[in-house]
Structures are given as C-alpha cells and as structure tokens.
Amino acid sequence: MPIRILVVDDHSVVRQGIITLLEDEEDLLIAGEASDGDEVWDMIEDLSPDLILLDLTMPKMSGIEVIKQIVPAFPHVKILVFSMHNNAEYMVSSAVHGAAGYLQKDTSRDEMLKAIRSIAKGELYFPPYASSLIIKNLLKQIARIPEPKVELEEGSNDRSIWKMITPREQQILKCLTEGMSSKDIAEKFDISSNTVANQRASIMKKANVRNTAELISLALRGN
User: Fold this and answer.
1) Radius of gyration of the chain (CA)
2) 9, 100, 126, 202: least CB-packed within 10 angstroms?
3) In whole angstroms, what is the distance from residue 213 CA to residue 98 CA?
4) Residues sharing a CB contact under 8 Å with residue 210, sequence separation 6 or more, in sequence order
5) What is the 3-state secondary structure (H, E, C) of 149-185?
6) CB 51 within 8 A of CB 3
C-alpha cells in the first residue's frame, strides 16, 4: 500500500511544487491538499492520510496548533514539518508536541523522500542541524529549571532513567542525546532500524514520556 500524504501549505505554488516532486513515486500517493490548518481535521477523517506534510506559518491556525490538535486525536497520522524557518524554537515546539520530523523548504528531493519513508516506518527524522538545535535548546531550558526537591521513601532508589534501563538501552539513549538518527544508531551497533525503534519505545515506556524530545530532556537532566 502506498504512503498516503496530505500536503498542507497556504501557498498554492508550494503545494503544487511538492506534489510535482512526489507524484511519480510508486510508493507515495498524494491523498489531498489543504491551504490552512482549519481544513486538516475534516480532511484526515475524509482522506485517511498516513502522513501530513505541514507548513508552520499559515493563516487561521498555525502549524504548531495543528500539531497540538492532531497528534492526540489521530496518533496514527505522522506529521513532517516542512518549513522555511531554521529556528530552534519552532523545531523544539514541533518535536515536543509530537511532530515526527522537521525539514526546511530548501531541502533536496532525495532528503524529503528519505524523511517521508523513514517516518512512515515509525522512525523520527530530524536532520543533524535540527537535532543539534533541539538538544541545545533543551539544555538551555533545563538550566533554567530549579532542581526539584524530591523526598524518597525509606529504602527507595534513585529513579534516574539511566538506572531504569538495560546497558544496551543506555547505549541507544546516549546516541539519541547526541542527535543521532535511528539509521545512524543501527549502523553503529550493526542492528536493524526496527530493533532501534523497539529499544527506543521500551525506553520511552519505562520513562513514561510521550515522545523523543521529552525522553532526551529527561535523560540530559538525569545524566
């Protein structure tokens, strides 16, 4: 089955350009297009897309607001942000609220295809520059947060995420905090991307977090 894509951008020229780039790929299907965030909810219900290629700066409803609404309501629909902004705040906000990837509009066709296919398989796709900006921004936020005073019950242990996971999961988590992609981690340890995804899912379950950005924040705070 082809990956069903909904293209959301307020500029018709941009939408048509994206469609032209993708429409000849046999494993991709342009399910529809929307010009603003208000249309997205109804179009998801009508068109059942697998992935939304989403602009951030749109009239009526911003891309960030779309992410906030769509991710909890349609967790099976992946969101790939496609923005002109090389802005850490936008990248962090997108990741924290559940976007599966972030690309700038000057990216190459090959990278766009790689991102779409990776996300469709359940992976995240943040290029190295984006991962670096996200992690640096999270570190700044963490530095401003006062350390909470936690009273442990008698006999209890430190609940740092690093002490809750296996040695292999610790290796995976360390790579994630360094901004490495699932593909890079798989190659580093000579394992499959699915194994990396399963390990990441296990770590997130133990950490009780919703997404990788929250996991990295928790890991850096407890390192």
Assistant:
1) 18
2) 202
3) 9
4) 98, 204
5) CCCCCCCCCCCCHHHHCCHHHHHHHHHHHCCCCHHHH
6) yes
| Distance linking the first and last C-alpha atoms of the chain | 42
- The most confident of 44-53, 56-65, 91-100, 140-149, by mean pLDDT: 44-53
Extract the tokens encoding 183: 């593909």
Whether residue 151 has pLDDT greater than 50: no
88 vs 147 pLDDT, higher one: 88
Could you tell me the pLDDT band of residue 154, with boundaries at 50, 70 and 90? very low
Three-state DSSP at 111 gives helix
State the average pLDDT over residues 212-222: 79
Query: pTM for the whole thing?
Result: 0.63
Closest to 212 measured CA to CA, from 164, 163, 176: 176
Domains in the chain with CATH codes: 3-127 (3.40.50.2300), 156-222 (1.10.10.10)
